[in-house]
């Protein structure tokens, strides 16, 4: 797969995939979008001091890094699992320079996230443990009723419609505990209808810069 690195509007970088005509993060701002969607309207919407996160798309590791930072800054115990079919190589990930915006003291932690072996559990600190799953989601079933939050950060439906199929969203529903939720940057009508058909309670939230809306979908039973 061919990649290009581009700089987004908040000064952070992301990866552009020419054959999909898609970027890993918003061109309006990679870091600010991730914080808005997955931290502000994700982790911070849960009051529990210990929580489990499943990410659909480990990608560049940005969301995993932000989750680690949240764990350290607010002294919350977080267990993170992320699945990725096509891992980004360490050299390219380090070119993202996320820590210039997030905090240069986290550079070593970011490298460790990428250097850690796949399909094994690791501990980055006393509060933060993680596992990277090298697999296609079509061929993987997450543990049942295990997670408080799903970060759904696959490429958009226009580029990879199959990643947003009801069968994949059903896996996310089943992986959540009652009272857990899925959060995503995507606000496409068909995705929201599919989420509702699976039993999610769907709410539209203000989107990050450059996007009118984002989606949070709760599992109540």
From TrEMBL:
Provide a Gene Ontology MF annotation, just one. Answer: tRNA (5-methylaminomethyl-2-thiouridylate)(34)-methyltransferase activity
* Residue ranges of every copy of the MnmC-like methyltransferase domain listed in the record: 106-219
Q: This protein is called what? A: tRNA (5-methylaminomethyl-2-thiouridine)(34)-methyltransferase MnmD
